[in-house]
Write a structure and sequence with these properties.
This protein has about 500 residues and is an alpha+beta fold. Helices cover about 50% and strands about 10% of the residues. The strands form three sheets. It has a five-stranded mixed β-sheet with strand order 1-2-8-5-3.
Length: about 500
């Protein structure tokens, strides 16, 4: 029989195989889609194959704004939680503040692990405090907490303050020329310089060169290749399959860059007997002191945690700064009131921006708090259930391995929590008013034992950068910016669909 004669049979065999495979997948999904019904929990009707996701493709690798829709449906039906599906994976969205507190604080031991893809076997250099599980996380948290003490914050304050100088020079240049500023890029350069200085003791040079290595790497992390995005997508669909296939989250070139920076930095400090008060020194000391220990702090741990702090340190803070400036530009009365407080407080401190001066800024902190209510950089907190858990006053038991999601954006935009939630109103967080806010509906840094370890540092660098800008410059929105800005769907960290361009005028 000729090859041409075999071709129809081959095509028939391939077609039959594909149809059989599709039917197997469809039956698997269909059965999974009965999970919450079998559990006796309220749920949102899923659709094949997305479940309750509303983004398909390489951008749908994290819980994003779709959780606002889940939340609204649960609230409308009077549910304290509601079942949904991440592709075929059952997810429980928690709505009730008391249940949120149970998951993140009171019964934390049932929900110790973050729901975020990582691959310890095939990608050990990207294991960090952010993704570490159970006992490994507890050890890392204990070891890394000292870097964010009050004493360390005071020392880092001056370093961060100096990092703002190049940014302010750029503001001065644009103020004179009248050119609009792509503000997200500007504040991202600032926070990148801060992390380069505080974490590595290095000048990242983001404002002096378009090819500054740390800024290039920062962009690469959030403009990753199709391959990396596909790895994240498969990891969201099926964690075990992605891990088995050796998929990874961070591009290998990024990991290699940080490995080289750490190796060279550590070598220089050891050979020249140099000690600095920064993250690099703390991790280097941990690494040296635990050599030879079975559960010691390995070089892979070193690299992974440096990468994690770099990502968290520059992107979340730059996102917050971007959103604060957006709302101040939209609300000139709030902007003027903020500027007035900054000037008044600085006068009390001899005109110098100090650690103590930042602590005295009451209204300024209200502006940041209100921004974080409307625009939490991390849009959802997701925890894996590590042992079966039954919610109080319910018959629903969450099984090990199921993800429980706390929808931060939805909580902040709920009129039951905040009247007229779409209005930017810093007075919600005045000393008198904020006492009426349920603490479990305002958690932009998470809550409980696994809240953000770098919260204080993030707020400090955000405050320093913003105070310098608002004190010296009036900001307005340039006509190049499509208004109002819309939030992007299908992304882990909050992002707008278009760029924000600001006009800046010297006060």
């Amino acid at each position: 029989m000729t090859v041409l004669g075999l071709l129809p049979q081959l095509l028939l065999y391939i077609s039959a195989t594909l149809v059989s495979l599709f039917l197997c997948v469809y039956v698997y999904f269909s059965y999974s889609f009965t999970y919450w019904k079998r559990k006796g929990a309220p749920y949102i009707k899923p659709k094949f194959p997305l479940g309750n996701n509303d983004c398909f493709g390489t951008e749908s690798f994290s819980y994003g704004l779709e959780t606002m829709d889940w939340y609204k449906e649960a609230k409308q039906k009077g549910h304290k939680f509601i079942g949904a599906w991440n592709y075929s994976n059952p997810v429980l969205l928690v709505v009730d503040p008391d249940y949120i507190k149970s998951v993140l604080v009171k019964d934390f031991n049932h929900f110790t692990d973050r729901d975020f893809f990582h691959n310890p076997k095939h990608d050990p250099k990207n294991e960090s405090i952010f993704v570490a599980e159970n006992e490994e996380w507890r050890q890392l948290r204990q070891r890394l907490t000292p870097v964010f003490s009050t004493a360390k914050m005071r020392i880092m304050f001056e370093l961060v303050n100096k990092c703002a100088d190049p940014m302010m020079q750029l503001f001065q240049t644009n103020s004179r020329s009248g050119d609009p500023m792509d503000i997200k890029e500007v504040v991202a350069m600032f926070t990148t310089d801060v992390i380069g200085c505080v974490a590595f003791g290095l000048d990242a040079g983001s404002f002096t060169s378009e090819d500054a290595k740390f800024r290039v790497i920062g962009k690469k992390l959030f403009e990753s290749s199709l391959k990396t995005k596909m790895h994240l997508l498969v990891g969201r669909i099926n964690v075990k399959l992605a891990q088995f296939l050796g998929m990874r989250v961070i591009p290998e070139s990024v990991t290699e860059f940080f490995s080289e920076v750490i190796t060279e930095n550590a070598r220089f400090r050891q050979e020249n007997n140099v000690r600095k008060i920064d993250l690099m020194q703390l991790l280097l000391d941990l690494y040296e002191s635990s050599k030879g220990q079975d559960d010691g702090f390995s070089f892979d741990d070193f690299v992974g945690n440096v990468i994690a702090f770099f990502i968290a340190g520059f992107e979340t803070s730059s996102t917050t700064m971007h959103n604060v400036l957006y709302e101040l530009a939209r609300n000139p009365d709030v902007q003027e009131k903020t500027r007035e407080e900054i000037n008044n407080v600085l006068k009390k401190h001899g005109g110098v921006l100090t650690y103590e001066a930042v602590q005295d800024m009451t209204y300024f902190r209200q502006v940041i708090d209100e921004t974080l209510r409307m625009y939490p950089p991390v849009q959802n907190v997701a925890r894996f259930c590590v042992k079966p858990y039954t919610f109080k006053d319910s018959n629903v038991t969450v099984e090990k391995g199921v993800s429980v999601v706390v929808p931060l954006v939805a909580l902040g935009r709920d009129p039951d929590n905040y009247p007229n939630p779409e209005r930017f109103d810093p007075d919600r967080f005045s000393p008198q008013s904020k006492e009426s806010i349920n603490k479990s509906v305002y958690i932009p840094f998470g809550d409980g034992p696994r809240n953000c370890i770098g919260k204080r540092f993030g707020l400090m660098q955000t405050s320093i950068g913003l105070m310098q800008v608002v004190r010296d410059y009036k900001i307005t929105i340039n006509s190049k910016t499509p208004m109002p800005l819309k939030l992007k769907r299908g992304v882990f960290l909050m992002e707008t669909t278009n760029k924000l361009y600001l006009n800046v005028t010297k006060v």
